[in-house]
Automatic annotation (TrEMBL):
Keywords: Aminopeptidase, Cytoplasm, Hydrolase, Manganese, Metal-binding, Protease. Its cofactor is Mn(2+). Mn(2+) 1 binds at residues 269, 346, 348. PANTHER family: CYTOSOL AMINOPEPTIDASE, LEUCINE AMINOPEPTIDASE-RELATED. This is Probable cytosol aminopeptidase.
Amino acid sequence: MKFSFAKPVLPKDGTVVVTVLADRRLGAAGQDLDGTTGGALTRAMKASRFTGKREETLAILAPAGVGLDRILLIGLGKPEDLDESALQAAGGTVVGALASSGETEAAVLVEVPPEADLSPAFVAAQMAFGARLRSYRFDRYRTTEKKDAKPSLKTVRFLTDDADGAKKAFGPLAAVADGVFFTRDVVSEPANIVHPESLAERCKDLAELGVEVDVLDLKKLKKLGMGALIGVAQGSVYEPRVVVMRWNGNPDAEDKAPVALVGKGVTFDTGGISIKPAGGMEDMKWDMSGAGVVIGTMHALAARKAKANVVGIVGLVENMPSGTAQRPGDVVTSLSGQTIEVINTDAEGRLVLADCLWYAQEEFKPKLMVDLATLTGAVIVALGTEYAGLFANDDELADSLAAAGRKVGEPLWRLPLGDAYDKEINSDIADMKNVSAGRNGGSIIGAVFLQRFVNKVPWAHLDIAGVAWSKKDTATVPKGGTAFGVRLLDRFIADRHEA
């Protein structure tokens, strides 16, 4: 789907989209169109329940003599609540409403309420960003889909007083969307296509954007001593990989310590010997979502030439049961030298992250670390599918991440850490075990385990198990892989760590 910007000249045919504020308030261009159509917009709103609330829609067949096919009203809500999230939702709602309507083109009348302190370029660019995010579709393996089942919409033009400014503002947003799409692609792929070795190869594509990519194979991992990560992978025919991606966007920075992003990349998780139930196991192809988000974020940062120094590290493994798989009760030695009694082989993501977090600290001396993982089902019980769990050893870092999440519509909810939880993973025969004796506080137990591999570095852990995959469409996220975290991390780095 193509998105463009043009002067606010009403087209002579096709579909026109008109934004409406709360209480059915039309802007100047909307009022002009209402007059041209003999009051058709006002009559349609009065005859319906449409009031202009955020993400409301009302489709109107254009009256005779106008030339247009249809008019689509999109609610923006109250002008005082009109921020980038609301604008993106409006743009996404346009695509959601028209994608399969039969229309191939649509023109959006971009209007800025006088009381909103927003530029026409900003409004148009944010709406286009939302539309682009919603336009994603993973259809690589559909070979018999009928034409009328495919999206018809091909082009959306945003009509604005500052088309050149909107195009310029849209550039970096489009780069972020590219990173989001990269993540959605790799998360949506089946596990016979995306496995540790093939995903590591895909990471190499980032070199074209200027990212330095280094792939650590099994031989290197053994030499380093990543026993926790290797133990997870030993039941699979696919060897593990750790991929290190470096974006040096601010080489002249006085403080050259990078921001470190670390992702769990279990490309398929059967649970290992502690095998999962068969029902729903196909969803475990997206247990590499944390790694997917880190890779997509690195893509976004490089594509928009972010003036920041960032290192992304992903641990890629497949957790399979076999004659070579690790067993409950095995003891592994992590890169840190600490030993781990593996009580449950389905608590494998924390073993992968333990070695990657330690490697990030030792190798790059980062100013802070953020890890992302579909770590626990317990966080879904706690927070559902609206919020990701946030754990941190640093209040400022936690607050900054939460603020970034609110701005982009990827909310976080902070959960506690503490010695009482940490004591639950003490082992009788090793330095620690990978789960506690009971089921209580499962997501917290996973976080305190990870904290044992973090020294004095400011660190945050995002448990994205409930938000990495969606079973329904939202305004800017079609159902499937969400890429939750890419926009959040991009905004966090833009707001806090760019020159």
